[in-house]
Every structure is written in structure tokens, then in C-alpha cells.
Specification:
Number of domains: 1
Strand content: 15-25%
Distance between the termini: 35 Å
CATH topology: Heat Shock Protein 90
Helix content: 10-25%
CATH superfamily: Histidine kinase-like ATPase, C-terminal domain
CATH class: Alpha Beta
Shape: globular
Order of helices and strands: EEEHHEEHEE
Strand order of the largest sheet: 3-4-5-7-6
Number of strands: 7
Structural class: alpha+beta
CATH architecture: 2-Layer Sandwich
């Protein structure tokens, strides 16, 4: 399937039927196979592209049997990660790309979001729960990612941007993290 036009167009393999694995599934429908699912998408650094990546995350989760609430919260974590990559990593430079890779093996979902920016120190991001930061608008995205995913890890390669890997065990059936990283 090809979405978008021009240099921001994305090509990614999606099954033609993305029926959710929920009580509303038509009789005889089956959820997507859980082993070996991999979806990759590359987008230009435009806020308009965030929703596309979020929708992919939510569909993958629902088709793997995750409940609607859990799928929504994982989608929110992905949304925040992509927004951070566009705004803070790539500095809104539409020539720079954001890559998203979703890998599902069994019940384990791994999501990698990579940008082409210069990197940052995650420990220097303000804690949004600290009373002196309650009115600040920064730091909430990382807080959401830590809350909704089981683990998040950053890696920084000189000259090649930041990669964020978020993991979640979908068998737990909730959008709230089972352990913090």
C-alpha cells in the first residue's frame, strides 16, 4: 500500500483486511498471526504524518488480540515518540525522515522510532509530576511512553540521530506498563 505523495510517501506492507481481534470481529475472522509480524514506515518530519504511524500501531495491537483501551494507550505512546522525533529530533525539517518499525513476536511488541537529529539526554527532561513543572508543557511525552509501555530505551549514534525502542508484552492486556525502565 502506498500512502501520501512526493518524497514523504510511505510504502509499507499491511494486510488488506485489518479486522480487529475483538468481540466485534465478524464470525469466522481470525486475528493476525502473532509471530514474525514486521511493519516499517518512513515519514517526512510533518506533524500531519503522526496519525498514520499511530493508526498502524493501534491496528497491529488490536489484530494481535489486545483490547481497545490497551491499543489506544500504546498508540498514544507511539504518537508522542513520533512527535518528539519530528519536533525535537529533526527540528521540523521536512527533509529529515522519521522511521518507525513495529515487530511482533508472540506476545512481545517492539516499536523503534528513529530520527536524524543530534540526540539529547533523557535524564535532563523535566519530570512533569514535579510540582514546579506542573504548568510546563515539556516532558509529558516521555512520561506517557514510560507509563504505557513496559520498557523504553534510547540509543544515540554520532551523526545518525536518536533511536527509541519501546517494548510491551501484549498478553498482559492493559495499556499501563508492568515495569518501568
Amino acid at each position: 500500500m502506498r500512502l501520501g505523495t512526493g518524497s514523504g510517501a510511505a510504502v509499507f506492507p499491511l494486510p488488506l483486511s485489518l479486522a480487529p481481534a475483538s468481540p466485534t470481529m465478524p464470525p469466522g475472522s481470525k486475528p493476525m498471526e502473532r509471530d514474525g509480524e514486521r511493519i516499517e514506515i518512513t515519514i517526512s518530519s510533518r506533524f500531519e504524518n503522526i496519525e498514520l504511524v499511530q493508526v498502524i500501531a493501534e491496528h497491529l495491537c488490536e489484530n494481535a488480540g489486545m483490547d481497545e483501551d490497551g491499543s489506544h494507550w500504546i498508540g498514544m505512546a507511539v504518537r508522542e515518540a513520533v512527535a518528539n522525533a519530528i519536533k525535537h529530533g529533526n527540528k521540523l525539517d521536512v527533509k529529515k525522515k522519521v522511521n518507525a518499525t513495529f515487530e511482533l513476536n508472540g506476545h512481545d511488541l517492539s516499536i523503534t522510532i528513529s530520527d536524524e537529529g543530534t540526540g539529547f539526554d533523557p535524564e535532563k527532561v523535566s519530570d512533569p509530576l514535579n510540582p514546579q513543572n506542573l504548568m510546563k508543557t515539556s516532558g509529558r511525552g516521555i512520561f506517557y511512553m514510560r507509563t504505557f509501555m513496559d520498557q523504553i530505551r534510547y540509543s544515540f549514534e554520532a551523526g545518525s540521530g536518536t533511536s527509541l525502542v519501546m517494548t510491551k508484552n501484549l498478553a498482559k492486556g492493559t495499556g499501563i506498563a508492568s515495569s518501568k525502565a
